[in-house]
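Fold sample X.
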Amino acid sequence: MRLVLVLATALATFVASLGLAAPASASTPIKVAIIVGPVGEELTPVYISLAEASATAAETRGAMVARAYSPNASAENVLAAVEGANIVIYLGHGVGTPNPYSANPNVATTNGWGLNGPGAVGTHADSWQDGSLAYYGESWIAEHAKPAPGWVMIYSNACYAPGASEGFDTAADEAVAAARVSAYSRAPLAELGASAYFATDFYEGAAHLVATMLDQPELPFGEVFASEPRYLAEGLTRLPHGLIEGAETWLHRSPYFEGKLDYWYAFAGNPASSLSTTVTAGELLATDAGPDLTLDPADGIVRGMASSYGESAGWEGQATVALPVVIGGGIPTAEPSWVLVCADRCASLPVVDSCPCYVGTADQRVANLSHAAWALLSDAPLVEGLIPVEVHLTPVATPEQPPDA
């Protein structure tokens, strides 16, 4: 990871504005999930500022943004943010393949995300030795992440993702860079149905990609790639993807930090495809109830399946619920709304977040329960994944005055 590069570039350009275009209108909001893993106390705030540039680019264009930032970028919080996302952005440590650490890399820890680990203590500490940082690799992501169909993966300022080596190591040649980009993009493209993979080390490069795709969703991914202000046509090499038949791997070698030539930028997938052709209206976050959402206007009860998530920032360890936007989910406030949720038992729960919950699809959920809420409502083990529930939307429930069960 070029941490020194990121810090130096950030300090040199922090007064510059993003220069975003006017928001594009959209009838259905796209969900953008942004992950910031821990990279130390000094640099994590820089990464968060880069993440917020992407968040601003998305939100000013009508997208919904789900944030999972260190020190709250636990595996559970990250999976909750990624669920149903059309674009996923990751900033943080990375370990790709090939690398100088192991001749036989472990797919459980490579080509993935570095998150706050089981030894995290509420800081941006990033040591894998004490567990404050944990690497969740391609096999873990493929097994657990549930983004939307046709989603786009963007790696920003993560080691190996665009093909380059770490600063101490031998500079990557074309073959090594291509192998790294192919390895990093394999799970998103082949296992999780991503339509495109981008990796950039350029300052606010992810924000530019998001802005371009949302402003021009019909623009082919190859042209999105070439729209980067630091793109040089002579620096591009197009190769067949090393692991996925029919896909391409694009390497971009150009001068950047202190004029150093390296692989700062990459793409994988089908360059002729686009956001509009891969993320159809039916795959975007729905803005109406959808065919499978059962809402009885007479009694104000929504019936269906509930999934689970770890916790929401500010509500750690508490019994809470996230709902689809169409039935009241949203950004939590100082005084969240309350609903009565019933499974084996009933409880009044604060609505502290929204969830895409696969609304309008055969996999639709009507609620996402925190682990504490799941235990409050049901004796079923979390590994079951789903439980049937009733969500009583009216009257508004509070701890002091819950509605009748």
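Fold sample Y, listed below.
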Amino acid sequence: MLMIRTQKVRLYPNRHMTKVLDSLCDYRRYCWNEGLATWNDMYELHTLDSNSPYPSAYSVRNELVANKADWQYELSARTLQLAIADLGNAWQNFFDKSQTDWGKPTFKSKKVARQGFKTDRAKIVAGKLRLDKPRGTKDWYDIRISKHADLSGALKVVSIYRENGKYWASLPLEVELKAKLRTGDNSAVDVNVGHLNYTAGIVDTLPKRLRKLYLRIKFYQKRLARKRVMNGNKATKSSRYVAMRAKLQRDYRKVANIQHDIMQKLTTKLVNNYDKIVIEDLPLKLCR
């Protein structure tokens, strides 16, 4: 039986590939915004004239490809294709209110800390990530990946993003699922504030190192808020403000990594040691 196992890895591009990744992140945002604007125009035209075609991912993509500028040919064509495909899925979800992230697609902002793109033509070569090279491009290099990554399996659509000056990739690998040996044991998990209870003991979800980070984040948030109150919009342009904001973003990343590590270790332990896992599901709104 085949399954998709997603491996999140850190990327270490050289100077040239750093510029390439930045350009592709900007290009993905450009394609999304242009596609959304085109979609809105086509939808408005359809409402005014029923003979006009209803917008779809196919028609919007063809419109953008037909109007491509010269500079767009220097970047991967798959970035545009996948951006419009995701836009089409977003519009489909808009008509399904049962979706957790239900809502009308919005334009992407370059001010968002996390920027990224997708490609389905990436390869793993000698333990490095190789992106698809556009035609006419001479300088192209493979990107080094964090050493702890398990890269076995067939690579699918890769998501690459930049956050806090660092580059990450989500590598979905199609691997063969091995049958799990039965242990004959069952377990129950009780979710509490600061800890998780299960059959074999207690897992602390608020360790000492995490509490220190929360205090430091609180300190940075107060200092940044004070600077904005005192200096207004000029505060965000000062070098000290930018440096402190970078420290705050770094601590946010550390907190996310610690929380992710705790949950991954616990869930792996539960799956390996127990055949049946029961987790309570309380409607919190009714408990108030």
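Sample Y note: Residues 239-273 form the longest helix (35 residues).
Also: The helical segments are 15-48, 57-66, 77-94, 208-231, 239-273, 284-287.
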